[in-house]
Amino acid sequence: MLDFTSRSRFHLFLDTHNNAMISLHLHLLRWPAYVTLLAALLLNLYIYNYPYLQNRTECIWRDDRGWNLDKSHEEVHLLAFGDPQIRGASNTSNWRTRLDIFGNDHFLGHIYRVMAKRTKPNQVSVLGDLLSSQWITDDEFERRADRYFGRIFDESLVKNNDGYVMWYNIAGNHDIGYGGEMTRERIDRFENRFGRVNYYVPRKGYRVVVLNNLALDGPVYEQQFQNDCWMFVDMVRQAREQEPDVSTILMTHVPLYKPAGICADGPMFKYYDNEYKWLRSQNHLSEDATNRLLDGIFGREDPRGVILAGHDHEGCVSSYSFDPGHGNWTVEGGRGNAVSEYTVRSMMGEFGGNTGLLTGSWNDTEGKYDFDYSLCPFVVQHLWWATKVVTIIATIVALPVAVSIHYS
User: Fold this and answer.
1) What letter does residue 314 receive in the DSSP assignment?
2) What residue spans define the domains of the chain?
3) pLDDT digits (tens, 9 = 90+) for 212-243
4) What phi, psi does 295 have (nearest 5°)?
5) Residue ranges of the Calcineurin-like phosphoesterase domain (predicted)?
6) Which of 388, 405, 404, 406 is nearest to 36 (CA)?
7) Cβ(317)–Cβ(286) under 8 Å?
8) What is the CATH code for 62-376?
9) pTM for this one?
């Protein structure tokens, strides 16, 4: 048997050996720690400063590019987000699904926070499909609405000099359904959490019109919604006729009619297979509804304003002008001199996490507002996830190395 002295020497040897091995392991970890720390630093630098580092001219307001603004009129600095489509988990969802939903919320919230702090808008709009399904229960609707305001779109981040920024939540088909699915219960719960589906806001020199155009085409499940929408359009027409020099910013979900080839989505209508043939799905408004809507909101003579829409996740730019020879409105791709429609590309990760920037400035020579639109993309969600994973790994690897360096 080993005596006390021998046992002490043996334990001392083991301690020395273990310490040497630990020191060796920590020494070997230094370079991986440095590499992961550098990668984490560069990735975080990018995702928190991407408006500065890519497409810089597309991620700022027009007046920040050197345009002169007439300060006697209100400038328009409007951030527009398309189709976040917040998903939800069920009782049977596994941990990977729940983690993916949690991460997606924070991915969307990251885009909003970075752009809000970067641009300091005076207005923000989410152009429909706030949620991913119109068929969810009321309890699930409330849970997703809480996440919408809690995790993603914190309205307190955007404040102007008066401490207030106008916020517009547009109703989409995944929020209240298409015309054949729209019910009083769905409208009520949306309006209770996100605001009215039809209203307009007079601003200094222009007006903002929020329209639920999902009810304009039919057949609809409840005729009252369609009647209400056209009555609202007529009310806007009367306001426009009283103030013909005032421009209009129309915000809605479904883009206006255009023939195939102008945007990614061509015309498409689907109907339920029942005796009523209720409207089940659509890519655009019908041509008749489009003509009637443009007549009411903008007017045929000297139309002034711009349209912001969602729904088409790919995004699109088009322009509408009235053709007196044929007595209807015509559309062409790209920007034009009449009424431009900007369909904002989706902010979902698979579409690149986009933000639309609408700038409006008063043109004293023309006596009306000029509007300019640009699209500021982020990246697909995988890079955001990679940044978080690398940051966690770098922290785990670097912490023991940092402690060993401190005490060495």
Assistant:
1) T
2) 1-54+383-408, 62-376
3) 999 999 999 999 999 999 999 999 999 999 99
4) -60, -45
5) 79-314
6) 388
7) no
8) 3.60.21.10
9) 0.89
